[in-house]
Amino acid sequence: MTYLPHFFQLSSRQVWFQAIGRLLYQTGYGLIQFYIPLIFVKQIGLSATAVGIGIGSGSLAGVIGHFLGGYLADSQYGRKKTLLISAILSIFAALVLVLTHNLPLLVVANLIMGLSAGCYWTAADAAVIDVTTSEQRHHAFAILVLADSIGNGLGVFSGGLLLTLVHRIEALFVLSGVLFLVFLVLIQVAIIETRHDASNDTNTLQGFAIALKDRALRLFVVINVLFTTYVALVSSTLPLYFTLLPQNTTQNTASSLTSVANLFTWCYVGLGAVLQLPLVQILGSLVKIKVLMISMLLWGTGFFLVWATGIDSSIRFALIVAAFSVLSIASIIYKPFAPAIVAELAPPSLRGVYLAISYQCWSIGYFFGPIVGGWAIDQPQNISHHSWLVVTLSTLCGNLALYVLARHKVTNESVVAIEESISIAR
């Protein structure tokens, strides 16, 4: 267990403050994302496709949010003010959800939440990159992913407990609003501005043009769309799919809402929280792209197990546990190393811009994932079941693309040279 002191020594105080902020933000955000499909389909009566459209609309707003967050984070506004904007937007989204009982308001709430998430992820990760070295970053991001996992678990667990005690769905969104308010206070009190080049501003809009010319970044973005789509499918579609599996007398508990929520909390979120730091420590010596190839293989294995749950109902509970567990490991391997790769590509003055472009993958993934997943669930059982096999096969394409990326020399020297020439010209 020697990895724990190592992680503590590497991380600055600002990393820990960002981890606390991530915990608060993801508890509120995870609570919303997990329970929206279950509540609006099973209790309010909207179709899975309609709810998928509602959730996916937030991802479209996330496209704007990431660009906005990247622009603000690299401009004179800086990281801290961008995070404050994110917190305010998330509070507003929670208030709208309190009043939501139809699709239009659900779309509005998700649009606001998408803007918030776009601003948050870009500014928060840029701030962490600012205060860490290249050797430290995957360790620092592992701490943030751990906070992410704990936050998601707390969101799902507290939401289930609150529904059991209060029996009012509005209470879930009130709780998320309170969490976002605490997050706002934390940013104001504890987070400092980490942007270093305030006295020599780079034209941020020009920076987007520079980043888009980076071929390695463009290829990574294409690959990252697959990863983020998988994460979106697990968080927004998979729990609902398991609750709708045909029940039988020997395994009816496995398909209940409460049971699936508990399995998601302990096998997907909980297991990830326990294994996050040791797995990053073990894999830290490998080339980052090879780590992502391992993750991609595990995603394929996990989705194959999901497909298998529709074949043999006698061992369905065990297959659900195995699927959540394998997908959890795939997720916690992917999340710390992906932004570390982007950090290696990005010039210091364009970190927000590079992250904004790379995080468009989350917007795209969370747009297509819930919509395609919701559509598949609404189809006849045979189509719904075999759609997971299609997802499994897509991971083979992902690993092929990672192999191509590994063949490229991952460097940003040419981009840095372009940026320096622009700075000299100015």
Automatic annotation (TrEMBL):
Location(s) in or outside the cell: Cell membrane
Entry keyword Transmembrane helix: yes
A Pfam family assignment: MFS_1
Topology term for the membrane: Multi-pass membrane protein
Keyword field contains Isomerase: no
Keywords: Cell membrane, Membrane, Transmembrane, Transmembrane helix, Transport
Chain segments annotated as transmembrane: 20-40, 46-71, 83-101, 107-129, 141-165, 171-192, 219-243, 263-284, 291-309, 315-334, 354-376, 388-406
Every Major facilitator superfamily (MFS) profile domain range: 14-410
Identification of the protein by name: MFS transporter
